[in-house]
Amino acid sequence: MFNRFLVSIATVVFLASGQPAFAHHAFSNEFDESKPVTLEGVVTRIDWENPHVHYYVDVAQPDGTVVNWACETGGPNRLARRGWMRDSLKPGDKVIVHGFPAKDASHSADGRKVTFANGRTIANQ
To answer: What's the CATH number where 55 sits?
Structure first.
């Protein structure tokens, strides 16, 4: 009986140690809500994956250079509940993104709302 107990405990420890540790970041740790940003440009790529969908937008700067911004949203299930589909946003789409920039000054943002050239809007929140 005691051996079964030890084998059970060892099995649980063994199986649990193989599982990746899932951690989720808080919005306020990564993004600056005090500095809303509006990005206008062309979608270059969409990564429809868990835990967050990311899309990338080429944004022309005042000096003529183009910067590719990474925009983070919720996960695929969350977006689907809000009306997003895999083909809602496609490379080549001209968009305006409203969101909040990353605190680390990288060209990344929490993309809260996307407005298309025809005025249609899809939101993450």
So the answer is: 2.40.50.140
Q: Is 124 left (phi over 0), alpha (psi -120 to 50) or beta?
A: alpha
Distance, CA of 15 to CA of 9 (rounded, Å): 10
How is residue 13 written in tokens? 């420890």
pTM above 0.90, yes or no: no
**SS3 of residue 37 by DSSP:** strand
Per-10-residue mean pLDDT, the chain, length 125: 52 44 53 90 94 94 95 88 88 96 89 90 78
Provide the residue range defining the domain that includes 14.
Answer: 2-123
d(CA 116, CA 118): 5
- Tally of domains within the chain: 1
Among 100, 80, 92, smallest CA distance to 38 is for 100
